[in-house]
Amino acid sequence: MSNPSRPNTPGHRKRHPSATVLIVGAGFAGLGTAIRLQQAGIRDIVILERAADVGGTWRDNQYPGAACDIPSNLYSYSFDQNPDWSRSFSGSAEIFEYIKAMVERFNLAQYIRFNQNVTDLAYDDQHGLWRASTESGEQFSARAAVMAHGPLSNPSYPDIAGIDRYQGHKIHSAAWDHDYDFRGKKVGVIGTGASAIQIIPELVKDAGKLTVFQRTPAWVMPRPDFETPQWQKQLFRRLPASQSALRKGLYLAHESMALAVIWDSPVTRLAERLGRWHLRHQVRDRWLRRQLTPDYRIGCKRILVSNDYYPALQQPNCKLITWPIARLCENGIRTVEGIEHQFDCIVFATGFDVSHSGTPFPVRGSGGRLLSEDWQRGAQAYKSVNVAGYPNLFLTFGPNSGPGHNSVLVYMESQIDYIVRGVKTILNRNLKSLAVRDSAQQAYNAGIQKRLARTNWNSGCKSWYLTEDGFNATMYPGFASQYARQMKELDLRDYVLTPP
Q1: Which Gene3D superfamilies match (predicted)?
Q2: Lower CB count within 10 Å: N or C terminus of the chain?
Q3: If you ran DSSP here, which 8-state letter would residue 304 be given?
């Protein structure tokens, strides 16, 4: 007889009945997948969410000034458009509310299991099931599994000596401390990326002294952000086709940007001229302008959009430091020339731990193979969605599906529809497993890497798109329309179909 007081161990887990589809993550990707599965008549779904609420990145990133750098009418699902966006570029709180409203509109709460942090995902060859073990000691299983945990989910702290020695207050942009009072404080900000350029204009309003530590200047473009007029909201509500037309126009406009961002072309020179004009227009001081001028081709790193970042750096209580950081000390930051800058608080706007070769938890495929080991030399997948050796497993935002010029949700919708076709194939043909062939995966990735070699991302600068040895497992080297076209067909010749 078992001891009821015995703690949950791998051999004593609470097991739930098997489902058809198991989804890890209740952010944009996981919820979108659930909606499309539901619309396809597949409702035996379980969504495992590690937190107590939905939203993923937009739940966690609620720092001052947080917003999306893609227009709201494009950064939303085509099958669930919102006519009431308050601005052309909405803030994170409004995007979070959109996600929560989506859960309510599509009755997704019934599928979600909150506070279920997955610690292990393993394929059972004998039964053709994926089994997820969670931190709470429970086990969930399903015929197919979808990893929708998102690439921007785990905050990343920089590898700086002495980071644990600092005795002041530390805040990461993805885990904001809303109770901390910045008024009159000496504040240091490490980072000048997408989060930092939104945080800095807000902090400079309250901080007594704000010091910004820049490692590499970014290309910053003007942000065409406007309040949405009431007549437009009413038009979208009464005539949804008008909003779809605007979305299509935004999509095509962003598609054209690929000519500047992805490849080195005459359009690239035009984009760089716009970036330099924006810098020259907003920064009068020549020395500061020189410090903020990138020395790499536009598109090599993420392009930023802001109208208030440059003005914030020129406020009397703000100072830009471009000397490299040597270490953190008990009271602040010491730069390589030997000066120690003392702070009450340090804000780490240093982004996320983007895994190029690992996974957020062990993923064990057929025969017990480990995905982190298979991806040790760089992550690879077939069409970003399936991985050889991992039957019935589907990825969202998998390897080489990152956009540099368009909305990630455009790519994600293509992936989700592909996943739904895959799951329907398993069910309609009553398959034990649907497994992509290794030869198909290798041929696909050889083509992707050949195309990437000719892009701006691989032109020589360091970015989070690349691994330490320069392998690009992140970006898709083409137009969003090209990506969508390849995802329209699930070619069963590239898969091994195993009956029960």
Answers
A1: FAD/NAD(P)-binding domain
A2: N
A3: E
By the 8 A CB rule, do 270 and 97 touch? no
What are 158's two structure tokens? 């920089």
Region at 460 (left for phi over 0; alpha for psi -120 to 50; beta for the rest): left
Cβ neighbour number for residue 200 with a 10 Å cutoff: 28
Residue 56 amino acid letter: G
Whether residue 5 is predicted with pLDDT greater than 50 in this model: the reply is no
Give the angle subtended at the CA of 404 by the CAs of 403 and 406, to the nearest 5°: 65
Would you place residue 118 in the very low, low, confident or very high pLDDT band (cuts 50, 70, 90)? very high
Write out the E strands in 148-231: 169-172, 186-190, 209-213, 220-221
Q: Which domains does the chain have, with CATH numbers?
A: 12-154+353-498 (3.50.50.60), 169-219+263-348 (3.50.50.60)
Per DSSP (E only), the strands in 231-313 are 304-305
Structure tokens at 434: 């649907």
**pLDDT band per the 50, 70, 90 thresholds, residue 310:** very high
Is the pLDDT confidence value at 4 over 50? no
Structure tokens at 70: 């893609």
Query: Sorting pLDDT into bands at 50, 70 and 90, what band is 110?
Result: very high
| Cβ-based neighbours of 80, under 8 Å, separated by 6 or more | 35, 102, 105, 106
Mean pLDDT of 69-88: 96
- 322: phi then psi, degrees, rounded to nearest 5: -110, -5
Which residue did the predictor score with more confidence, 12 or 273?
273
Query: Which residues of 385-468 form beta strands (DSSP E)?
Result: 393-395, 433-436
What is the Rg, in whole angstroms, of the alpha carbon atoms belonging to the chain?
A: 24
Residue 164 has pLDDT above 80, yes or no: yes
CA nearest 377: which of 445, 456, 460, 475? 445
DSSP 63-129: -TT-B-SS-TTTSS-TTS--TT-SBSS-BHHHHHHHHHHHHHHTT-GGGEE-S--EEEEEEETTTTE
Average pLDDT taken over every residue of the chain: 93
